[in-house]
TrEMBL record:
One Gene Ontology term from the biological process aspect of the record: fatty acid beta-oxidation using acyl-CoA dehydrogenase
Residues that hold FAD according to the record: 213, 239-240, 253-257, 270-277, 291, 309-310
Family matches, as Pfam families: ETF, ETF_alpha
Cofactor requirement: FAD
Protein origin, superkingdom: Bacteria
Native species: Desulforapulum autotrophicum (strain ATCC 43914 / DSM 3382 / VKM B-1955 / HRM2) (Desulfobacterium autotrophicum)
Domain Electron transfer flavoprotein alpha/beta-subunit N-terminal per the UniProt entry, residue ranges: 4-189
Protein known as: EtfA1
Single GO MF descriptor: electron transfer activity
Xref: Gene3D superfamilies: HUPs, TPP-binding domain
Keywords noted in UniProt: Electron transport, FAD, Flavoprotein, Transport
Amino acid sequence: MKPIAVVVEHDGKRILPVTHELIHLATLLANGIHAPIVLVIPGTDQPDMAAELARLGMRTICLAITGIDGYNSGAYKTALAELFATLSPSHILVAHTATGRDFAPGLAVRLNGTAIAGVNNLLWEDGVPLFSRPIFNGAKNALIQANKTPCIAMVQPSAFLSPEVPASAPLPGPIETMEIKFSDPGIKRLGTRSADKRGDDLERATVIVSAGRGLGSRENLGAVEGFAALFPNAAMGVSRPLVDDGWMPYRFQVGITGARVSPEVYIACGISGSSQHLAGIMGSKTIVSINSDPNAAIFNHSDYCIVADILTFISAFEAIAASVNDPDR
């Protein structure tokens, strides 16, 4: 039986939370096709991480890549392709993160397999697994059946959160080490520099007001900023398109490639609801969405849905707030 392989996402020192989501999906998939699961940790120093994962009772392979210092796309593709050529998995689960998106498509080419990006759900049809991924800027989801193996599924973070903490198995799984030399990286790693993020404001805020393309123009950002100022302990954020268009710096970006937030209240102003943005806000206690499009995808994930023009709504809200706070009233 061909195994299901999970490529462990880590930062060189610790296993990142998305790995446990990949393992949860692997378990769902394994239950349907009756296949074993293999955890693969690529990198240079994995013993502690391997011991942590082995407690789940699954086979764990430390893929030790010599000749690199930290993550290297070419090294990952070369080493993983060599391992999987021997392992012959039916499915390879990778996180849809900056790292996963960097090496997974090229790995699929080397293995002559299939790559499915942005996977957010798993469904079944006649015993065949179908992977759901967003299309039309997140307004719809397409069901994809892999036409070749191995199928490399790039899984959206937060799409497969496990309701329970994985329990330790009665016996730890076996740990194996495979060493692969990589002598021609092509890219020289000079170091790591933290991004200029406004993480503190977004992480500490109890209310976050975010703007999207539905705002219309850059000049209207001031209205959203003023709207956010009406709430105590609030911060302003934006969706990725506004950062890409140069409207706001990256430190304001909310979503899978920006800040993943969990405020008491998240207010989305003119945000359509792409899966990348949703993955970054699903920890919010309450989601309020304001959009002029009654079919906006974000409404399917909101607690309160307001169909209105953003600027008209903000103006009306500010008028009510002013009257409530008027001492002469």
